[in-house]
Design brief:
It contains three helices and nine strands. By secondary structure, it is of the alpha+beta class.
Length: 147
Amino acid sequence: MIRRFGEPPISNLKYTLRPGAYAILQHDDQVLLTFQDAPFSEFQLPGGGIDPNENILPALRREVMEETGYTIGAATKVGAFRRFVHMPEYDIWAEKLCHIFYARPALRRGPPTEAGHTSHWVSKQQAIDLVANTGDRHFLRRIFNAL
């Protein structure tokens, strides 16, 4: 069973499965986060949805590039979790299956290309304090306590 973070599912709602890939990106003592200004203003691990017929690692690389402007080196999967949320930008209730990876940023190709996103280097503790969801926070704590 994959651990759930956040609110439990609402029994009378139909949820759409939305798999996604997200990265904990560390360089020295800094972590790269993305800030999304809509539909909710929040700091997040860079990443997002895996498109139909897209493999997980290419999706991770694409999403990190779109949200931060960085390419990434080899990525290691550290776990996964589920969240049940409303996604107003798609007008759906989603069961998000979040695959979490640890990687190093490689080359910055430019600014984020995804509208409403900015990238931010923060300390490890700031990353833990800033991320909006408890699943992201759990994996940040787990990774940084293991290093």
